[in-house]
Design a protein that fits this description.
Pfam families: Zn_ribbon_DnaG. InterPro entries: DNA_primase_Znf_CHC2, Znf_CHC2. GO terms for molecular function: DNA binding; DNA-directed RNA polymerase activity; zinc ion binding. This is CHC2 zinc finger. With 385 residues, the protein is an alpha+beta fold. The protein has 14 helices and 16 strands. A five-stranded antiparallel sheet has the order 1-2-3-4-5, covered by helices on one side. A five-stranded mixed sheet has the order 12-14-13-15-16. Strand 4 and strand 5 form a beta hairpin. The longest helix is centred in the C-terminal third of the chain and has 20 residues. 38% of the residues are buried. It binds zinc ion (ZN). Zinc ion binds next to loops.
Length: 385
């Protein structure tokens, strides 16, 4: 996949993986190693995480996280997957032989710079199943007063639930890969792999009316290992986009739930919102096109170290090869949720802070004036109506 694939042999990668991972042993499927997951702590370890030294790729079927050997190294040493400091330490520790080759690779990457990847959407058969699931979960939520009240405490109204297709999945269930239009795959016991649909709130992202990515906010007390926001298998890593494509002002946040809240509050002013759904996810070509032509981009990634690192980076040695929001887009600037309130926009409603006020305070004055005029027009229209 990445660096380790370019400068090492599969045998070297396997040896390093065995050093880094715990309970590491050959998996049933030839060529793979199974181990405890380095990306989350498991209540009942084993059988979920696999690393393939040949392809330099690891994946956890329990938490849905994965990456190459460098990402695994970063996770084991307590870093985010693409931490550049971890990359450097990995090189210093393991790449002595390949140092020459590596220098070549770094300068090649610098020459190329960062380029967005084309949006790879899930197969249409996955989209059909996902749509069925989303429609059913939405109907379930619309009839559940208690869950609607919970969403409202997060600031999300029934109107947004209806318009955006937010749902509730009442029971953690498993569906076979092939039933969701994915290629057949076997688990370590020789059974067909399943897509897990955890109990919780269902937040779908659509492109051209078809779900392409779904996160579930897990609410199953029997599944304490799951990350808070679980991405359903087969989802595409495209950004969640809400609002008019032609909007000139955009807010970028981490979770799809926050992007939906922002859509609810800001789309009347013509402001778009997008969620990366994972702090190190980068814009696809569609999102890049929108961002390139935007007049102003508010980067509101979480108010934490990972959010800061992805907003800005300061490593002169790989200045041009890495992506950061504020360096990629000249019209982007980082806007934090004050630490006393929380770490993301989703924390604002609970603290009694208006999302609109928070947003307006972070917008350049000339754009704020325009948005305020627009707001006045809307109010005027409502009063006349
Ligand atoms: Zn895991």
């Amino acid at each position: 996949m990445g660096l380790a694939l370019d400068v090492m042999s599969a045998a070297e990668r396997e040896q390093i993986a065995r050093e880094l991972l715990t309970e590491c042993k050959p998996a049933r499927k030839a060529g793979k190693l199974s181990a405890n997951c380095p990306f989350h702590s498991e209540g009942t370890p084993g059988n979920a995480f696999f690393y393939n030294p040949e392809e330099d790729y690891g994946y956890c079927f329990s938490c849905g996280q994965g990456g190459d050997l460098v990402s695994i190294f970063n996770a084991v040493t307590g870093r985010v997957p693409d931490d550049p400091e971890g990359f450097k330490e990995f090189v210093a520790r393991y790449c002595k032989e390949g140092a020459e080759k590596l220098r070549g690779q770094i300068s090649r990457r610098e020459a190329q710079g960062w380029t967005p990847k084309k949006a790879e959407l899930p197969p249409a058969s996955w989209g059909d199943k996902a749509l069925e699931f989303v429609v059913q979960a939405n109907a379930e939520l619309m009839n559940d007063e208690e869950r609607l009240a919970q969403l409202l405490r997060w600031g999300i109204t029934e109107g947004a639930v209806r318009e955006l297709g937010i749902g509730w999945n009442d029971e953690t269930t498993f569906r076979k890969f092939t039933h969701w239009g994915l290629p057949y795959e076997e688990n370590d016991k020789g059974n067909e792999r399943c897509i897990m649909l955890p109990r919780g709130f269902v937040f779908p992202g659509f492109r051209r009316g078809v779900p392409v990515r779904i996160h579930i906010r897990c609410e199953d007390p029997d599944m304490p290992d799951l990350p808070r926001y679980f991405q359903i298998m087969g989802s595409s890593n495209v950004l969640y986009l809400f609002g008019e494509r032609k909007a000139s002002v955009w807010v970028v946040v981490e979770t799809v739930r926050d992007a939906m809240l922002l859509w609810q509050e800001l789309s009347p002013l013509g402001v778009g919102s997008m969620a990366v759904g994972g702090v190190s996810v980068r814009p696809d070509t569609d999102a890049e096109r929108i961002l390139r032509s935007a007049e102003f981009i508010m980067v509101a990634l979480d108010n934490d170290d990972a959010g800061a690192r992805n907003s800005w980076h300061f490593e002169p040695w790989n200045e041009r090869s890495r992506f950061s929001w504020c360096q990629r887009y000249a019209q982007a600037s980082r806007w934090l949720v004050p630490a006393g309130i929380g770490k993301d926009a989703g924390d604002l409603p609970g603290a009694g802070v208006s999302v609109l006020d928070w947003f307006m305070a972070g917008v350049p004055a000339h754009i704020r004036r325009r948005l305020l005029r627009r707001q006045e027009e809307i109010r005027g229209g409502q009063n006349r109506g």
